[in-house]
């Protein structure tokens, strides 16, 4: 079969420059199966203004088998010219294969970091036999929402975030909520008060066995490569991998999407993808903005692409709410040195570093040259794996 990939253009919503002037800042590279198709070197960047369109017009045609996978990857960066010393930079990687029907048609990828906001437009055309082995295409959809927090600083932060779990039930043939108590409307199809690891793995497997594709919402604490539950148990990367065994081996577990509130969730992204997830998001390190899940789910329910719903949820107001909670928390916590009288932990000062490295971030995770607010934003960066163009209306195959 033949697959034709056209990289059409870049829409520059924000060029990453606080002055919004063309300073020759934009550089990028896009590859198909590791071979470069379009690029602009960092030492010779593109002069762009906000709202500009960079025409690419690059085409790649491939002869592949129906069981092949084609990878498209790339990045966009903004050359920093002295504001904070760091380039805004975002990258992506996605696969085309029979399970997503080669993503035929017009597609977009959002690349966002700090002020930088760029959208790649690309088109895929396929000719010939586009299906390989017999695939499973679930006709029913289910959501599973796991809410399991330890009684710690993160738990208190999330409690103040006023998350609307009911939005996670909307529009599914079956909805499952795992939470110790829940007395709010709307009600899920199933409310499990058992939030143990075994219950989670059993419910995930039961939904898959019953013919559902699953959207997973994890609202829990986490550390690197594991989800920490309120009973002290941990769902490890190995536990996630265990879902992709038996008849679900080879990436056939019907997990359509996973949204993770847990800290360090990005370290689990590849595990979810390997068992079959089509798209997954996890935070880079500590997630200071757990409240963003509600707006994400609302946009997901409205039909937005996965990456677009994530982008729409990451608002200044949602960040400000949690930043003010952090300031309030710092007022009652002990750390030394304290912040200067006219400043707080959101500013760049020794007190901010002392507070964050004592209660939230490790010393290696904290950037001393940045403000407390910038450290919160960087730590909470949304890391996407899989298909950023996935929508709730999609019915993928495994």
Automatic annotation (TrEMBL):
Residues 367-398 are annotated as: Disordered. Residues 389-398 have a biased composition (Basic and acidic residues). Residues 367-382 have a biased composition (Polar residues). This is Uncharacterized protein.
């Amino acid at each position: 079969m033949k697959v034709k990939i056209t990289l059409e253009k870049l829409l520059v919503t924000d060029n990453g420059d606080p002055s919004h002037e063309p300073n020759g800042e934009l550089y990028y590279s896009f590859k198909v199966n590791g071979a470069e198709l379009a690029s602009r070197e960092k030492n010779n960047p593109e002069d762009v203004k906000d709202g500009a369109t960079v025409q690419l017009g690059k085409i790649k045609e491939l002869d592949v088998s129906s069981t092949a996978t084609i990878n498209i990857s790339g990045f966009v960066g903004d050359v920093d010219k002295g504001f904070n010393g760091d380039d805004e930079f975002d990258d992506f990687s996605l696969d085309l294969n029979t399970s997503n029907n080669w993503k035929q048609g017009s597609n977009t990828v959002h690349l966002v970091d700090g002020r930088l906001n760029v959208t790649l437009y690309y088109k895929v055309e396929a000719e010939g036999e586009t299906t390989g082995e017999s695939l499973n295409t679930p006709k029913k959809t289910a959501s599973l929402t796991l809410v399991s927090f330890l009684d710690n600083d993160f738990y208190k932060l999330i409690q103040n975030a006023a998350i609307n779990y009911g939005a996670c039930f909307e529009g599914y043939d079956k909805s499952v909520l795992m939470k110790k108590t829940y007395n709010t409307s709307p009600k899920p199809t199933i409310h499990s008060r058992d939030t143990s690891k075994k219950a989670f793995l059993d419910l995930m497997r039961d939904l898959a066995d019953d013919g559902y594709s699953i959207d997973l919402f994890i609202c829990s604490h986490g550390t690197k490569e594991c989800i920490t539950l309120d009973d002290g148990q941990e769902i490890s990367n190995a536990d996630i991998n265990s879902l992709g065994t038996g008849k679900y081996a080879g990436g056939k577990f019907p997990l359509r999407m996973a949204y993770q509130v847990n800290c360090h969730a990005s370290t689990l992204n590849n595990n979810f993808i390997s068992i079959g997830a089509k798209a997954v998001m996890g935070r880079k390190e500590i997630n200071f903005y757990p409240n963003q899940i509600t707006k994400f789910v609302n946009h997901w329910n409205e039909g937005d692409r996965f990456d677009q719903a994530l982008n729409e949820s990451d608002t200044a107001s949602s960040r400000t709410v949690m930043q003010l909670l952090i300031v309030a928390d710092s007022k009652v916590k002990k750390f030394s040195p304290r912040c200067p009288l006219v400043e707080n932990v959101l500013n760049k000062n020794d007190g901010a570093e002392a507070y964050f490295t004592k209660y939230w971030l490790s010393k290696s995770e904290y950037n001393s040259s940045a403000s407390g607010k910038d450290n919160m934003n960087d730590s909470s960066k949304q890391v996407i794996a899989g298909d950023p163009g996935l929508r709730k209306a999609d019915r993928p195959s495994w």
